[in-house]
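ARCHIVE RECORD
Type: protein–small molecule complex
Small molecule: adenosine-5'-diphosphate
Source of inputs: curated submission
Record status: active
Notes field left blank by submitter.
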Amino acid sequence: MRFILMGPPGAGKGTQAEFLVDQFQIPQLSTGDMLRAAVAEGNELGILAKQTMERGDLVPDELVLGIIAERIQMPDCANGFILDGFPRTIGQAHALDNMLKKLGITLDVAINLDVPTDVLFDRIEARARAAGTARADDNAATLKNRIEVYTEQTLPILDHYQANGLLETVDGTATPASVTATLMVILEERTKPEAAATSQPHASLQF
Ligand code: ADP
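STRUCTURE (tokenized, with ligand):
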């Protein structure tokens, strides 16, 4: 099972991803987490990304593409993965298409968790209060910018996944449990082995 979990900051991607990782035993590839780890480690990537992240802007595509290309080929991704926070630009979406093509793998679905902006502000401010200084970019000042960046640079990729038939939009204002239930239905539908189901459904009944 290979899919993208999309949605603006505060849409609930992290909460849902945590459940789905457990459910399907596949890793969550969060570019945000990977970049934060690089910043914490103070390595070259972290040094390059730190200030951009603190402003709530996107780090350059090539940096993110490098870490994803490496991560996606690790053995634990062999049975699938959840992409969280990637792709975030049209350039990243096209690069991902090429990367997957070269690896001979396809995505099952791109799920968009849809949440209106006013709800996002409330949620992230609450998260920032709860987390204290856990995340340098979880504050009202950068939040506004992160939502703007999402609207300008990431929303357009929904059209890309709509056009190739992979997009599913889910109401992210429902309760977490209800969002989870909807995601499970979508994932089951999208990963049904249709060819097998239609070509040999009665074979066993004849014996
Ligand atoms: P959010 O809660 O805003 O969705 P993330 O944890 O996914 O946050 O990302 C935090 C920050 O990391 C982003 O604001 C951006 O600076 C950087 N980042 C994460 N993923 C990407 C990406 N795919 N492309 C560019 N920058 C990214």
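CURATOR ANNOTATION: DSSP finds ten helices and five strands in the chain.
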